[in-house]
Protein 1
Amino acid sequence: MARKTFISYKYSEAQKLRDEILKKLGKDAVYYQGETSESPDLTNLTTEGIKSKLKDMIYDTTVTIVIISPNIKASKWIDWEIEYSLKEVKRNSKTSKTNGVVAIIQKVNGTYDWFIEHGTNCHGNNILRYKQNLVYDIIKNNHFNSNPGIWHCDECKTYSYDEGSYISYIEEDIF
C-alpha cells in the first residue's frame, strides 16, 4: 500500500540518491510530497516562508525518509523537517499523525565506512557501530530508543538490529 512520503536530505550531496529512491518507488512515487526539480525556488524566501512551504509538503505525509550523508549536519533544515514529521499538527478539523521515519545511509566511494564501523561484541559476534556524532540529535535519540532499553546483550550493551528503534538505519543498497 502506497504512503505519502517526504524525503529529507542535504541537496548538494544526496540529490542523486533522492532521485534514485523516487525511481525505485515507481508508480508509488506519485505520492511523494517533497521537493523535485520542478519545485519552485525557495532561496529568496524568508526562513518563515521556507518553513511554511515545508510544512505544507510534510503535513499530509505518513512516512519520512531521511538520507544520511556525510555532511547532513551542515543542512539547516533536516533536523527541523524530522521534528515536524514527528509532531501531530492540527489544521482546521484535521490532525496529522506522527510519521514513520526511516534513515537511508548513503554509500560514499562504494562503502558505508564513513558512517558504519564493524566490530565484535563480548561474545565474539560481529556487530555494527554507527558514528552517531555525524547525525542530528533527533536522529541519534530516536535510534535504539526503546524505553526501557531492549538489549540484545545486557553485558556488552548491544542492541538487536530488529528491535528498539523508532528511526532505523538502512543501507542504500538494501533499501
Protein 2
Amino acid sequence: MEPVEVICAQAMAGLPHGFLGRRGGASTGLYAGLNVGLGSEDDQAVIQENRRRAVEAVLPGAALVTLHQIHSAKAVVVETPWPDDARPHADALVTDRPGLLLGVLTADCTPVLFADMEAGVVGAAHAGWKGALGGVTDSTIAAMEKLGASRNRIVAAIGPVIARSSYEVDDGFAQRFEAADPANERFFSPGRAGHQQFDLEAYVAARLAAAGISRVEMLGLDTYADPKRFFSFRRATHRGEPGYGRQISLIGLPG
C-alpha cells in the first residue's frame, strides 16, 4: 500500500501538521487516492477510511475536527470534537486543546495552517478567493489571539493551491479585488482577451503579512497542474468529469 504523503512546512518543524494530497488513499476511479470529502459522491465508508489514514499519518489517536465549509470568513474555536453530521458552517478552526486535529479540505482553494508554538495555539483556514477577500485569515488570527496567541509569534504556511498559471479569471473578477484595494492589481497578470491570471497564493500571503504575520511559508504547489498528486475542482471541470475529490490539511497539538 502506498504511504500517505505528508508535506510539511519548515516553519512548523516539530509540530504535528501536514498538507496531504492524493497519495496513500483507498478511493478508486474518479476519486482515486486519499479523498476525504464527505460531500463527494465517493463511497462513504472509503472516505472514512481515508480520513482515518490521514489522522494516523499526522497525529495518531487524535480526534479529527472538520467543518461544513461555505467560503466565508468565519472562524470557530474548537474545545471538543463534534460528529461529522454536526459540523459548523465556517471556514477556519482554532484550538489550544491537545489531542485534536484540525482539518480543512481543498481542491484548488488555499489551505493555511497557523501556529503559535509558545502559546500552544494552532489554527487552520480554508481560503478560496471569496473567503480570502472577505478576511478568513484575519478571522483566524483574531480567534487565535483570544486563546492567548500573539500575532508576532504566529507562523503560517500555505499549502497546495491553484497557481497563477492555472487560474484564469475574467476582468470583472479582477476589478472586484482592485475595488477592495487598488494594490491588489499586482496579483493579476494579462491573459487572453477579457481575462487575467490570478495569483491566489500570493494574495493570501500578502493578507497574512499585512496582518502582522512575519513568517509566512509558501510551498508553491499547484493543485491544477499535478493530477497524480492533488485533486483539483477546476481541472475536473475542464475535463468534464462528474465529480472531484478533496484533499486535507491538518494541524494539531500532541496530547
Protein 3
Amino acid sequence: MKNATAKKPSRIQTRNRRLILDSALEVFSRDGFGGATLDAIAKGAGLSKPNVLYYFEGKTEIYVTLLSQLLETWLDPLVELDPQGDPVEELLGYVRHKLDMALELPAESKLFAGEILQGAPSIADYLKNDLKPLFDKKCSIIQDWIAQGKLADVDPAHLMFSIWSTTQHYADFGAQISVLLSEEDPAARAHQHLEQMFRRLLAPVN
C-alpha cells in the first residue's frame, strides 16, 4: 500500500479499502484475474482509479490481498476438525460447514477455483507450506479413526477431495443449478442429500 504510515487507518480509509476489496471480489470472481481491470474495480467501489491506487499498488496487490483473506477463512473448518470428537459427526459437520460456505460465499469460492484452474500462480507457496501439512495431519486423523473401527475403510485424501468437490459445486456451478432446479434456494435439499450420502459412506461396518 502506498503512503503507508505507522498510524492507525482512519474510518474513511478502512471503509474505502473494504469497498475496493468487495468490488474486486466480484470483478475477479466474474472476469478472472486476466479479465479484471482497475477501472472495473474502481467503478464497483464507487471510487476513482487514482483513489484505488492510493490504497493498493495495482491489480496484483488487490488480488493477493483477497486470496490471503480468503485462504484463512477457507481453512478454518478443516482446522476445527477435532480428533477427540465422534468421527462421523466431525466429518459431517465439516461437510455442513463447507456447504454453508459455498452457499453463502459463492464469489469467494469462484475466486479460489479460478486461481487453482490457472495453476495457482499466486498461492503455490501457500498450498505447499500451509495447506499440505494441515491436509496430511487431518488425513492421518481420519486414518487413525479407520484403524480404530470408527469409520468405514475409505481413502482419507480422496474423501477430502469428494467433500470439497460436492460442496463447492453449489458455488462454482451456481448458474447451472439455478436453471436445473425449480426452487430458488437449494440449501435444504443439498444439506439433506450430502449428509445422507456421506453418512452412508462413513458409517463403520459392524
Protein 4
Amino acid sequence: MQDLAFYFPGILLAYSTFLLAIASPGPNILAVIGTSMGVGRPSGIALAMGVASGSFTWALLTLFGLSAVLTAYASLLLLIKIFGGIYLLWLAFKFFKSAASLHDIEAKELSGARLRPAGYFKRGYIIQMTNPKAALAWIAIISLGLQDGAPFSVGIAIVVGTFMMSIAIHVLYAVMFSTPVMARLYSRSRRVIEGVLGTFFALAGLRLLASRS
C-alpha cells in the first residue's frame, strides 16, 4: 500500500490518459454507438463488453511484456518512454486536426448479419485485439505510470483500474447512444472536446519525453 501511495501520481496520470483516450470516439467507440443505435441497447452493451475485454487483454500483454523487457534490460526504459511520448504527440496532432475539421462523427452499424449478444461480444473483442493502435496506446499508458524501479503492484493497479474504467465508459456509450439524440448532442460539442484532448495528449507526450526515471 505504501508503494502504491508513492507511485500514485504516475498511476493517476496513466488513468487520466486512458480515460481521455476513450472519451473521444474512435473506431471502437463508433462501433458501439452504431450498434446501440442500429440494433439496440443489449447488443451495444455486449459489443462494449467485448471491446473492454480486448483492452484488458492488451493491457496485460503490455504490462507483462514491458516488465520482462525491463527486468532484462533496464536501460531500455528511456527508449520505451521516448517511443510512448512520440505516440502521444501524434495523438495530439490527430485530435487537433479533427477539432479543426467540420466533419461530424459517423456512427454506423457494423456490416454483416445481426447476431446474438454473445456474437456482438466476440465481435467487439476481435475489433479491439486486431487494432494495432491499441498496442501503441498501451505502451504509452504503461510507460506513463511505471517509473524506474516501480514494483509490479503499480502495473497491476494500472491494469485493474483501467479495466474498470473501460467497462464503465464503453457501457455508458452503449446506453447513452441507444437513442440518436445523444449522437447529435455530442457532435455539437465535438470540436471543443477534441481540442481539450489534443492539449492533454500534447502535454502528456512532452512530459514523457522529458522524463528520465
